[in-house]
Amino acid sequence: MAETEKKSRFRLTRGQFLGIAWVGAVGLVIGEAILALGRYIQPVSTGGFGSWVFAGNVDDFEVGSVTYILSGRCYIVRNESGLLAIWQKCTHLGCAVPWAADEDQFHCPCHGSLFSPEGVVQGGPAPRPMDIFPIEIREGNEVWVDTSSPTQRATYDPSQVTPV
Fold this sequence. Notes:
- By secondary structure, the chain is an alpha+beta fold.
- The radius of gyration is 29 Å and the shape is elongated.
- Strands 2-3-4-9 form a 4-stranded antiparallel beta sheet, with no helix packed on it.
- The protein is built from 2 helices and 11 strands.
- It has 2 domains: 40 residues; 109 residues, Rieske [2Fe-2S] iron-sulphur domain (Rieske Iron-sulfur Protein, 3-layer Sandwich).
């Protein structure tokens, strides 16, 4: 009889089992919610806008070309002096400014600001030239743009161009 009494002491009733199952299920849901919140507040990636972005090789940019770099949200302008990385953001109200190749200038679609290939205001309400990002030429002629530190400027100066 002593054995039967021992076994009966460790038996779960149906209600106890369901209670433990419910507590386990609720604990699992709370754990998943905490994990999802942790993933939500974690940075999305280590690359892309807001850090160093690979734009291509120097040979990819012909003299006189304006190339959009999607991951950097910027344009790489190559002129006779070298490369210039221009942020796509309008200095008036922050609109994304597309390049109009047929007119050889940037056109802000919201309020009509016009910018030269170097980002200098040519018309419209924009108060100053488009901002630029630092460019670094690394091994193998790789062009890297630092999108974490835009530079505001009052005018275009040839010293802003990265020589190649």
